[in-house]
Amino acid sequence: MKKLLIAALLLIGFNMSGQEYFKFGTAQNPKGESFLVDSHGFIVGGRRVLPVMGEIHFSRVPKSEWKREILKMKAGGIDIVACYVFWLHHEDKEGVYDWSGNRNLREFIETCKECGEKVVLRVGPFCHGEAYLGGIPEWVIDKALADPVNFRVRTLAPGFIAAVSDFYKEIGRQAEGLLWKDGGPVVGLQVDNESSGPWPYLATLKQAAIDAGFDLPFYTRTGWPKMNGPAVFGEILPLYGDYPDGFWDRALTDMPGSYRAAFRFKDSRLSAVIATEVFGTDQSTAMDKADLAYPYLTCELGGGMIPSYHRRIRIFDNDALALSICKVGSGSNLPGYYMYHGGTNPDCEDHPMSELQNSRYTNSNDLPQKTYDYQAPLGEMGQPNPSYHRLRVFHQMLREWGDVLSEMDPIFPEDEGGVRTAVRSKDGSGFLFVNNYERMAELPEGKLDFCGQKVTVPSGASFCFPIGLEFRGHTIDWATAQPFCKLGRKLYFAAVEGIQPRICIDGKTFVPELDKPFRAGGVRMVVMSPEMALKAYKVSKRKIVFSDGIVYRDGRRLVYEDWVEDGTASAELVREAGPAREMRLGRAFTWEQPSEEEFDAAAQWSVEVPIVDNPEDWFLSIDYNGDVARVYADGRFVQDNFWNGQPMMVRVSDLVGKNVTLSVLPMRKDTPVYLQKEQKETLASAEGDTMLSLQGISVIHRITR
After folding, report:
1. Omega of the bond prior to 501 within 30 degrees of 0, cis?
2. Is 0.85 surpassed by the pTM of this model?
3. What b-and-e string marks burial along 461-499, b requiring 16 or more CB atoms within 10 Å of the CB?
4. pLDDT tens, residue by residue, 85-102
5. How far is Cα 167 from Cα 104, in angstroms, rounded to an integer?
6. CB-CB contact of 457 with 449 (8 Å)
């Protein structure tokens, strides 16, 4: 470990240090606070920061829930809210714009401002986001098919650029007065999505955004796929991504291709696994030298994954944390999650609102038509998944020490003792990043020689240890616990499961008792047990609270939110299932989801919805085994689910006072879709040739106090 630290301390970063290298907009707000970008990352108000960005789609979340959910994102460590602005959601009919209700972008931005969150808008015209036609309206596709020379999508065709420019102007009107330069929260904007160019196309979109009023501290594009030809340096920041698994992959096996590379520290920012159905499985991860002069920022680290019909991925609790540890350890100064908060597709009478492989443009997969839960840290209804708390502990460290960490360059030593490590350091201080977790693999425990300490790293562990951190005139020489926060004159650490915490301060080593305050070398400290760390929230400069649920600050008030099971709902079988459907391949040569007509052969239950006060705080959790499930309220299609072994969630507010039915199609044992080990075992254990059962319906209550 000593030689690794010496090597890290010798690293010299890029000497590009000024905004003049990047051709962006106004960087100062009316208070004189600047938002600058250099080769390392962001400098806000003269101070380096290492922010965390999380994606939520306002048009997929009820407007009444925006404030609460943004505050929960903030409590989870999110500093920047990212969101697609789906063209399809706002101009479904040419020239007729809808910014009302859940589509009210202006009010959403104002809500982010009220909550103290910055905003990055991802304005397309192509977003993907598993939206129908990638978020491009049908009328645009109609024009492109009728006049491909003048209206070819995602090109410089004059008709298409004119239509996009009009849409950008409408977005600009929504955001008017809410940009950073106005004292608002909007600091950045992404043009298009997953575009290889050519460069003049992206440059034209950037100019169209500027013409629409978007004078911003920075502009971005996705750094994948590789550009088709050279780009002009300094105009648009490339942001990167990686995923623990992908619904889009055509293989029906565990972790195909190079998904496992996401759980390794590496000097390339590119992933070879994003959108393999479009870009192929042989994507290069060799970096262009010019792109290395940009800061390493991400916008799509897989906070979860949605199951497609042909690939029923189930995300595990540690996937997102290990992914984030690997990216920050590899030098990223903006972990940005897609998704961080799930949602529900809006209703539309004229066409679907989710990706379908049999549609006319750009869609290659069959996705659920309503749910966009994404197994994200905060799910579709705002329910916290275990990844929310695991990530939050890491994010708190980034909030506290991001200013020093962001200037530290990474090195990638050979795995020491079988453990994957990276070091980021500068001027005698540093952080050791360790990841001994890989999705769907049992990595053996490893051995580390860390600053003279023999450390056994358990299988499944992902963490960060400090080296040479200064605190109030003292030096934390090293610690075998992860820094959590500064609380006045006290330091909090989080212990790692299976590792004995020791702290060396000013040359003296201490072995603390977990969850007990102690004094070491003049510094007061607490090393929290792993269980207590998952409950800890720093709610002010001098206050920390503990809760099994979520704690967020709403103005001066602390809000405690818990999700508890509160009874069951009864369901009566009113129709037996017909014969299992015959599987077929769709236009994209992947297995096709059931048609509307095929649901006539589904088993059907009549569900008794509980009568409750405040139905918006109540949910049904439906535990079933089958192929696809749908819920209808008075005949209206309100929720669906592709079975992956997880229950489906439904809002009681969508059901109360209505005739509610649950329809489930049986899954054949020879269904040619991807299932993970546990789900394969469940399917194999079903009686007969098909699997179909309703295990039960739990009533879930969201309680706030």
Report:
1. no
2. yes
3. bbbbbbbbbebeeebbbbbbbbbbbbbeebbbbbbbeeb
4. 999 999 999 999 999 999
5. 15
6. no
